[in-house]
Every structure is written in C-alpha cells, then in structure tokens.
Amino acid sequence: MNIFDLTIIGGGASGLMASLSASDHGSKVLILEKNNRVGKKILVTGNGRCNYTNVLLKKDDFNRPDFVENIFNQFGPAETIDYFENLGILPKVEDEGKTYPLSEQASTFLDIFLYEIEKRNISVELEQEVTKIAKNNGHFVLTTKDGKKYYTKKLILSTGGKSMSLTGSDGSGYELAHVLGHKTTEVFPALVKLRLDSPHLKHLSGVKINSRVDLLLGEEIMQSETGDILFANYGISGPTILELSRKANELMNKNKKPCIRIILIQSVSKAKIIERFNQFKDKEISQSLVGLINKRFISVLLKESGIDKSNILVKDINKSQLFKLIDLLYDWRIQVVGSLGFEDSQVTAGGIDLSLIDNLTLESKIHNGLYFTGEVLDIDGRCGGYNLQWAWSSGYVAGKYASLSDRND
Ligand SMILES: Cc1cc2nc3c(=O)[nH]c(=O)nc-3n(C[C@H](O)[C@H](O)[C@H](O)COP(=O)(O)OP(=O)(O)OC[C@H]3O[C@@H](n4cnc5c(N)ncnc54)[C@H](O)[C@@H]3O)c2cc1C
Predict the structure, then answer these.
(1) N or C: which end of the chain has fewer CB within 10 A?
(2) What is the pLDDT of residue 137?
(3) How confident is the model at residue 341 (pLDDT cuts 50, 70, 90)?
C-alpha cells in the first residue's frame, strides 16, 4: 500500500497554491482533480484577466474579519504579489486597488502553475473525483468515483464552493467534510445578479448608469454602494449589485423582502429640480426630463408616478403626481425577488463552519493532519480580487503547516 505524505483534493486556485507552498516547505505532494485539467475557474476570473489580489485589502472586506486576519497576517497581498513576482508574474494595479497580471491574461497563472508543478515533481491525477474519505490507522483513505483508492498521511480539502459548477466546484467538498464530522453553515450565492419584480425590465434592458443604490429592508438601509448598474430583462447587475447581492440573498433566505433603492439624481438638489419644472412649465413632461436622466427612464418614471400622458404640459400635471415624480428621482424602489443562483455567482457564501478549524494553521480541530483552504470554508469577500486572495493566502498557510507538522491521530 502506497501512502502519500500529503494529498490535496481539488486543483483550483487554493489547491494549486497549497501544492506549491507544501513543496516549498519540503513535502512531496499529490493533487487529485476531478476535471480533465486543473485551474479551470482561474481562466474565467476577472473577465479573463484575473483580478488576483487587491492591494487595499482590509479584513472587513470579508464575512469573518477576525478569522481571515490571522491568515492574511501570515501571507497577505504583499507576500502574494512577491510570491508570484518571483515566479515571473508582474502586477498591474488598477483602480480601487484591483491587481492583475501585467500580461492581462488569467491563463498566465495556469501557465506558471503548470510549469512549477512539473519543475517540483508535484504529482497530479486528473479525472479523479473523490467521493469518500475515511480515517484508518492514522491515515486518510480516499475513494474516487471509479473506485480507486488513495492513502495519505495529510490531507488538504480544496474543493471550492458551489459557484459555477461547470468549473468543477459543485459543493461535493461539504459532503466529504460532513462525513469527517465537520458542519457547514447555510450556503448561498454571493456576488450574483439580482432578479427584480418590475414590469419595466424589458424596456430598460441594456441601460447602464452610474449611481448610488441602497439595499433596503423597510426603511432601514442595509447596505449602500455607488457605481455602475446595468438593467437586464431578469433584473439588475453591475459591480454595485454584485456587492449588495450577498446581503439581499441572506435576507431572502430568512423570508424577508428586501428592495433596492436607486438614487438617479445625486448631484442636484430637489429645490433645483422644482425650479427646473417651473422653468419648463410650458414643455411636455417627457421633454422636460430630457437632459436630466437617461431617456429610457422617462416613460418608466412617468408611469410609476401615475402620469399616463407623456405629452401633458408640466403646468397641467396634478401637484401630487409631479411631487411623486420628483421623489422617484431620489428614491426609486424595486423589490428584489431572487438571484440568478449558484451557476451565475462568483462566490459561495457560507461553507465549512470555522469553529472547528484552527485559525492560525487551517487544520481541523477534529482530525490532525486535515486542512481546509479557499471557498469550501465559510469565508467570502467583496468583489475586486478578495476571493482569490483568500484562496492564495489560505492555500499558502495550509500547505505550509501541513508540511511542517508531523502530528497524526
Ligand atoms: C466567473 C467568475 C469570476 C471570478 N473572478 C474573480 C476575480 O477576478 N477575482 C477574485 O478574487 N475572485 C474571482 N472569482 C472567485 C474565485 O475564482 C474563487 O473564489 C476561487 O477560485 C476559489 O478557489 P478554490 O480553490 O477555493 O476553489 P475552485 O477554484 O473552485 O477550485 C476547486 C477545485 O476542486 C475541484 N473539485 C471539487 N470537488 C472535487 C472532488 N470531490 N474531487 C476532486 N476534485 C474536486 C474542482 O474541479 C476545482 O478544480 C471569480 C469566480 C467566478 C465564478
């Protein structure tokens, strides 16, 4: 029986990083990957450019700030940039700290990983989906879908979350962890487009604006973001919406009914808008709005404020309707009814419960020699390089400790 020193299940971002780190720290490593190639998801990150870290990263950009802080203190964005630079990848820092490879190609990461894997003699077995893990005489026994068995002293579970399952991450890691006694928190899609309940979506589909958008529950602002918003026939997307989506899904999971509030006009006071309507009182209402908001919103806002004729003169509109229209420019609410789900999401919120994971080494508190990395854990971050940074950091740390420690059950 051939017992490996260290096996990593999952050759995604965090598993690949763990393999290099473990090899840096002296381990002989085996990666088991269910796909016919490693790193499939890396290729689609950052619209093919791979936003691999964020130089402005703060612990509060994550759902579990104190937990991630311990890991980032050991291997954060600066160490990551240095690490990849040593392997040949130069960084290109863009707006809001988002960092890409200078080549602007996500495939650069894969090229580098494949090169390093070969150079370091890391073994990779493709099309090996692990379906069962058991503990036997101090080592782990891994069984694959086609019945093959692997024996290993140390094990790193790097199977990812449930987002975009065609890249391989289908949530199977949660089941594997359950069997070993670990629990998962509720998992749901985050960084995902939202479905809205509005009769105007078809008309607005394709409209892009830059604006503030709040997530409201009743009158309470749950989260506020400013940036690009894109309307689509199902609802709404864009960086601001992706950021709000985690909270929106969390609320909907609790049977709450959040809505989004779009603030179409930010830089002009209400008094100024009232003045404008006075100035244009002899104009048709639709004409009076031209130059103030995107033209596609005009008929929508008129309908929402109960003004059925777009050619009615401003001076002939009943006051309450006109004030409703003015209010809508600053406070337009649309109910959120869902999201596009795991398949469309960039990250999975929730995952393996952190209370049974050591926050310095990422080792299981139940089984010595078992480690976790990346999205399979109950960690998710904002959009902008944060989730890959978590993958690199957790991969590095787990790979290191799995190689340093020689404890066994
Ligand atoms: C479209 C898209 C764009 C994104 N863009 C960015 C970005 O620009 N910046 C950023 O920071 N983050 C981005 N992310 C998020 C980021 O890619 C993930 O957070 C990160 O890849 C997670 O790494 P991981 O190693 O935990 O999981 P994954 O990268 O998902 O890897 C898991 C691996 O495990 C394998 N696996 C699963 N189960 C088994 C099993 N039972 N047996 C064997 N193998 C198994 C899978 O096939 C897969 O290869 C993006 C995500 C998506 C979907």
Answers:
(1) N
(2) 87
(3) very high
Q: How far, in Å, is the centroid of ligand 1 from the Cα of 86? A: 23
Residue 409 lies in a domain: no
- The protein residue with its alpha carbon nearest to ligand 1, atom 20, reads 388
Cα separation, 101 vs 84, in Å, equals: 9
Q: Is 407 left (phi over 0), alpha (psi -120 to 50) or beta?
A: beta
Do 249 and 266 lie in one domain? The reply is: yes
Q: Are residues 264 and 118 in the same domain?
A: no
What's the token pair of residue 188?
A: 């749901």
DSSP 358: -
CA distance 2 to 64: 39
Predicted confidence (pLDDT) at residue 118 exceeds the cutoff of 90 = yes
407: pLDDT strictly greater than 80: no
Establish how many alpha carbons lie within 13 A of residue 251's alpha carbon, considering only the half-sphere containing its beta carbon.
Answer: 24
Distance of CA 212 to the CA centre of its chain: 20
Quick one: DSSP state of residue 284? B
Q: Answer yes or no: do 176 and 218 share one domain.
A: no
For residue 32, the cross-strand partners are 9, 125
User: Which of these three, 306, 323, 340, is where a domain ends?
Assistant: 340
Structural domain contains residue 286: yes
With tokens 């089941």, the residue in question is 175
Ligand 1 mutation pick, 33, 54, 159, 245, max ligand atoms within 8 A of CB: 159
CB 57 within 8 A of CB 387: no
Phi-psi region of 34 (alpha: psi -120 to 50; beta: other; left: phi over 0): alpha
The per-residue pLDDT for 115 is 98
